[in-house]
Known about the structure:
By secondary structure, this protein is mostly helical.
Amino acid sequence: MKRAFQICIGITIILFVTAICIYNILPARIPTHWGASGQADGFGGKFMIFLMPVISLVLTFGLYYLPRIDPKRGNIEASGMAYPAVMISAVTIMAVIFAITVLESFGTRVPVNIIMPIALGAMFVVIGGFMPQIRPNYFFGIRLPWTLANETVWEKTHKFGGCIFFAFGLLFIVCVILPPPFNFAVPIAGLAVGIMVIAVYSYMEFRKIGS
């Protein structure tokens, strides 16, 4: 986890240094939000260039230090690369958004409606791939009453949930071929259905073990 923290700090420092270096040459208003079509539909003052670096900093320290209050924090460290992968993925997404903001601020047209779904989809593929490694804890993973109550249910749920998250990530990537707003609406709807399926599956496993 310490190595992941160092990587995230490195990315965050790069974001801050870049923001400081380009601040004086940025236009007065920069894009801060994009619609499903990839067109910027929200703008703010150039000070907003520091938004992603700040969020990255908060994520880095929050994700690194908050698990220390978990009574089962040892299990987080025993979860292999699962938690470090989530840390790095989250900060990388901030870096991608930062890069898009910089490029579009200087007039470079970026296909946001393609890049962001691929980036988010890749993140969920990574999370899904590592999910079966997650050990029982109160901070990270699929924390339902019945997964926390039974370690076997926890393990089965995370194996099943990993497949769902992996498939959802692929769906997010494939849906870039759809016209807006379906390029985002379809995978988001898929995620909602997937989460409900995971919850139902987990409860059924709990009842099965209980009976």
